[in-house]
Structures are given as structure tokens and as C-alpha cells.
Write a structure and sequence with these properties.
The protein is mostly helical. It contains 20 helices and no strands.
Length: about 450
């Protein structure tokens, strides 16, 4: 059987291609969870929170987020279709177009961010070895590499890239970064140091961690549709992503406290300044980051196929890769904190609608349920909107113009997580509507 399955479109994956084991899924999601962009989430939590409170927020957010990711993986392995196509069942065929456009926008943005980080790491290494950064050249080269990984498809990516090469680079890079951070850490002093207060609160920190994980739920089915079993897909995604999430964000806190590095673009340069084995670590970091660019590019192409099912997936991968590379050449990374919060406010209640409708359908979507869905299912779309509004009411997030617009509705004294209430509201409304419709 060929490992290359890049062009399998939106129809259910046949039995012969359901080959990824639970270990394969854990390997895939474990690698996808490790990123410099995830590591520097820790810089957003301190010094507002103490180390103790920040670690508790990470654990709480990771447990909630990965439970949702595991369920998303299970539903994808059940339906055997991509994530955006899956949303035809609860939202209707045309109703699924709204989250599809949103998902394409977020994936293209993440692809751009990842290529910027990859180029920064490669440039830091190049400057210390050759005295020349060549950031533009590295951006183009790794854009081409990400395109090549996208053309492999999920099965080829796991079997021919992660198993044989990239996972070892991941372990090496994380081990070195941990040593690099702990070497100058005064853990007892950090643990006893109180937080300074302000933004983020504990609840907002939990939301940030949840948002970083839940941003993958729209993509989960793109990969778990190739899994052998639902259980293996759910365990592989939920557990495989859970442990590295805690490791990465906790490591980010230590890096900002011990090394004073608070953004993803400056981290490669700071590591390179250590010299010696740091060069190999930077190379491993660079290789590892390319995996996230692959996932975002591949899922962007697959998501677009929900809108244009007859368009060649290979062509879409090529176009998305070119667009992400071009944006990475002209944009700065900037502050993506509000981006993560805004994603959470959209996708947490959306996932509540999906889970509710899936359970109301007997915890199983048939091909007819998805591809013969009505054009619109307005009650479920309404449930998604209500959940989004609840999230924004409890915790207004997003661009400045938006937060100013909705800030007057915020009840002021609320500091707990907004994710769980928005998920619960969307779930209850959608479940009631789905039962009534059926």
C-alpha cells in the first residue's frame, strides 16, 4: 500500500487507507503540540501569575482542551471525513461554509507564523556559523519543505517523516531547551515569588491554554479519518497532545523567568548565543517547526475543498504554501495573544454544537447524515452564535476595536474561565434542537 495519500478529498476514507494506529496518532499529535509558539505562551502568563498559579492554569487548561481534542479526534475517526466537511451535519451544507472560511483564515495565519519562526531559527544558526542571516532565503526554502511535506499526506508524513527522523529531532530539541532553561533557574525562589496581578487572571490563563489546544479541533478529523479505530484516534490525540502541552508551556515560563526571553522570534537567537551544542538544538528546533507548517498548509487545502470539492488538492497545497511563504516574507510575527483568545471564543462553542448533534445522532454520523444534510440548520447556527456571545460577554477578546465595542457588556467581576460556560450553553441549546428535529 502506498504511503502517499495527499489527494484524498472529502469523501469518506475507505477501509484500505485506515492504517494509522493509536501509537501513530500519539506520535503525530505529540509532534504537533511542540512549537516555539506554544512555548512562549508561558511568557504571557508571568509575571501576572505566580509560577504556582500559572502551572495550575496550564494543567487545568490542558486537561479540558485535550479532552475536547480527543473527542474531536474520535468523531473524525467515526465519520471518516475532513473536519470542515464534518460540520455539514450539525450546521448544514451551506452553514458549514462560515467555520470553513474562519478555519482557512486561522490556518493560513498559523502557517505564516510557523514559517517566520522557522526562518528566525535558521537565520540565528546561519549568522553564528556563516556570519550571514539570509532570513528571506530560509523562509523560501522551508516554505518549499512544508509544501513537500504537505504533498506526502498524513500517512506518508507519519510513516516516512515522523517515525524515521523528525521525532528524534523533537526529543533532542526539547531536552536541550529544558536543560538551557533549568541551568539558570532558581526554582525555589521562582515558586515562592508571588504574581504581580493584572492581565491575565487565572481564568483568562486557563482560556489561553484551552484556546491553544482547541484551535486544533477543527483540524483533528483531517488526520484521524485515516485511523484504524475510534479509540486509538481519541487516545492518540488527547494523550499525545496533553503531555507536551504541559511541558512546552511550563518550559516557556522558566525561559522567561530565568533567561528573560519573552517572544518566539528572539528565542532562537538567545539559544544560539549559548554556543556549542546549541547549534544542533537550533537545527532540531527548525526541523520540528516545519511539522506545524505542514499541518496548517495541508488542513487549509482540505478545508477549501469543502467549498470547492472538485479543485485539485495538490494544486491547493501548492497555492497555500506559496501564499504562506509570501506572507512570511513581508509580515512580522507581532503579538498573537488576542488571536489565540479570539480563536477560542469561536471554536469552543462550535465544538459544543458538534458534540451535541453527534450525540443526538446516536454518537455516529452516517455518510447520508453529512452529505445529504439540509442547506442550513438555523437552530444549530444560532446555538453557535449564542455560545460565542456568552464567551465574549464573560471575557471580551479580539482586536482593540472589537473589545471596545463589547467591553461595556462585560460583568466586570467575572474572572473565571469563559470557555466552559460558552461550551455548555452551545451544547445544551444544540442538543435540545437536534433532539427536537429528529
Amino acid at each position: 500500500m502506498a504511503d502517499r495519500t495527499p489527494s484524498w478529498g472529502i469523501t469518506p476514507v475507505p477501509e484500505r487507507l485506515r492504517v494509522l494506529t493509536g501509537l501513530d496518532s500519539a506520535l503525530l499529535w505529540g509532534n504537533l503540540s511542540v512549537s516555539l509558539l506554544v512555548i512562549v505562551i508561558g511568557a504571557l502568563l508571568v509575571p501576572a501569575l505566580s509560577l504556582r498559579d500559572a502551572m495550575l492554569a496550564i494543567v487545568v487548561g490542558a486537561v479540558i482542551g485535550n479532552l475536547l481534542l480527543g473527542v474531536a479526534a474520535l468523531i473524525g475517526a467515526d465519520a471518516r471525513v475532513p473536519g470542515m466537511v464534518l460540520l455539514r451535519a450539525p450546521l448544514g451544507r451551506r452553514g458549514s461554509y462560515a467555520p470553513t472560511v474562519l478555519n482557512v483564515a486561522q490556518n493560513l495565519g498559523w502557517s505564516t507564523f510557523e514559517l517566520i519562526i522557522i526562518a528566525a531559527a535558521a537565520a540565528a544558526l546561519s549568522e553564528h556559523v556563516f556570519g550571514w542571516k539570509g532570513t528571506w532565503l530560509w523562509t523560501i526554502l522551508f516554505g518549499i519543505l512544508s509544501w513537500g511535506l504537505g504533498m506526502l499526506g498524513p500517512i506518508g508524513f507519519v510513516r516516512r517523516y515522523l517515525r524515521k527522523f523528525a521525532s528524534w529531532a523533537l526529543l533532542f530539541s526539547m531536552a536541550y531547551l529544558t536543560y538551557w532553561a533549568v541551568a539558570k533557574s532558581h526554582l525555589h525562589a521562582f515558586w515562592a515569588q508571588p504574581g504581580k496581578g493584572g492581565f491575565p487572571t487565572f481564568g483568562q490563563a486557563v482560556d489561553l491554554v484551552i484556546g491553544s489546544v482547541v484551535s486544533w479541533t477543527p483540524l483533528a478529523a483531517d488526520y484521524t479519518r485515516f485511523s484504524r479505530t475510534r479509540r486509538g484516534a481519541a487516545f492518540g490525540a488527547g494523550f499525545g497532545y496533553f503531555v507536551p502541552t504541559i511541558w512546552c508551556i511550563g518550559l516557556g515560563i522558566l525561559i522567561v523567568l530565568a533567561r528573560g526571553v519573552s517572544d518566539a522570534q528572539s528565542l532562537p537567537t538567545a539559544v544560539a548565543a549559548a554556543g556549542g551544542v546549541a547549534f544542533l538544538a537550533l537545527l532540531a528546533i527548525t526541523v520540528d517547526e516545519s511539522e506545524k507548517a505542514f499541518a496548517d498548509i495541508y488542513s487549509t487545502a482540505v478545508s477549501i475543498q469543502n467549498l470547492l470539492p472538485r479543485m485539485s488538492q495538490r494544486l491547493l497545497i501548492t497555492l497555500v504554501s506559496a501564499a504562506a511563504t509570501g506572507l512570511a516574507l513581508v509580515l512580522n510575527l507581532g503579538n498573537y495573544q488576542n488571536f489565540l483568545y479570539l480563536l477560542g471564543s469561536f471554536f469552543v462553542p462550535l465544538f459544543g454544537v458538534l458534540v451535541a448533534d453527534w450525540l443526538a445522532a446516536g454518537a455516529h454520523y452516517t455518510e447520508a447524515t453529512i452529505f445529504r444534510a439540509p442547506a442550513l440548520r438555523l437552530p444549530q447556527l444560532g446555538a453557535w452564535l449564542v455560545g460565542f456571545c456568552v464567551y465574549q460577554w464573560l471575557s471580551p477578546v479580539g482586536p482593540v476595536w472589537w473589545t471596545r465595542l463589547v467591553a461595556h457588556t462585560h460583568p466586570g467581576n467575572v474572572s473565571f474561565t469563559a470557555s466552559l460556560p460558552s461550551f455548555a450553553v452551545a451544547f445544551v441549546i444544540a442538543f435540545a434542537c437536534s433532539l427536537a428535529a429528529r
